[in-house]
Design goal:
Blueprint: E1 5-6, E2 16-17, E3 21-23, E4 46-47, E5 64-67, E6 70-73, H1 82-94, E7 100-104, H2 109-119, E8 127-131, H3 142-145, H4 148-161, E9 166-169, H5 177-186, E10 191-194, E11 198-200, E12 203-204, E13 209-210, E14 217-220, H6 225-236, E15 243-246, H7 252-261, E16 265-268, H8 271-274, H9 278-293
Parallel strand pairs: 3-16, 4-7, 7-8, 8-9, 9-10, 10-15, 15-16
Antiparallel strand pairs: 1-2, 5-6, 6-14, 11-14, 12-13
The chain binds flavin mononucleotide.
Residues 24-27, 49-50, 71, 73, 75, 77, 103, 131, 134, 169, 196-197, 220-221, 224, 246-249, 269-271 line the site of flavin mononucleotide.
Length: 307
Amino acid sequence: MNLSVQLAPKNKHGLLLANPVMTASGTFGYGTEYSHIFDIQKLGAIVCKGTTLEPRDGNPQPRLAETSCGLLNSIGLQNIGVKALIKEKTPIWASWRVPVIVNIAGETIDDYARLASQLDGVAGISGLEVNISCPNIKAGGAEFGANPDSAAEVTAAVRKATSLPVLVKLTPNTSDIAKVALAVAKAGADAISLINTLKGMVIDITQRRPLLGNITGGLSGPAVKPVALYMVYEVAGTVDIPIIGCGGITTASDALEFIMAGASAIQVGSASFTNPHAPLDVLEGIEQFMEKEGIKDIAELIGAARI
Ligand SMILES: Cc1cc2nc3c(=O)[nH]c(=O)nc-3n(C[C@H](O)[C@H](O)[C@H](O)COP(=O)(O)O)c2cc1C
């Protein structure tokens, strides 16, 4: 069986994954945290926590709340910063077989460009995922992704600053995701990942106050899956670059739905918090499905449900 997928066919380096199962940024640390739990080298790719120019402490606590079939988070991009990432994490990744993609976030377009140029050519990094979709920071993030023009500006700036494959991660918090996707594709993205979290909130009725320290947070988990699936279907019908589907994927069946909607690869996010083996379980389930259905190449399934 061939499960390999190419996520950056037009890029000189390419981004060839042995299989379509990736981890979602912010839910799998730097990969190292999970490497003693299962053989993470079996995955298609690992996407690390959102990285900024300077280290960040993130938002005030509490930053997590469970909701019906979902998780609300307002972490606020707590991370070690790009310098420490290059010094401490990339030498480890360089020895891995599994490609690692660095998720980057900034407050200005220049921040994104500087991050991209600092990460360009660093051994151990196979691509960048440009987070223009974080709902939990005061400046930048989802503001860029909500509008086709600013989304395109960030993409073009990153494209200019690096030869690495560039994945742009979209927010569902926009009125027309297809327009944003088209703008990003035209601006030079190699692939599009979607979705990031949906903005939401929880009220603590005893305190009569919002529960999260940041007041609002981003909703993820099974609750968002139908929204994410619809958006992947919509975007896959709009652009001609690979799509990476994300949002509520917990089982192989979930992953196959996204692939059949048109995603070339998928990311497992919040599911790793309840089942740390979830990405591997999803991969093994896809393999079993292909075997049972007599599918020789994953390409036969990509977009198979499109009408
Ligand atoms: C605790 C937490 C932290 C996250 N951090 C990031 C991040 O740093 N960068 C990013 O692009 N997305 C981040 N996300 C969004 C996920 O990568 C993913 O897009 C979203 O959770 C939907 O997928 P899921 O329903 O499978 O979790 C985060 C999500 C969670 C739950």
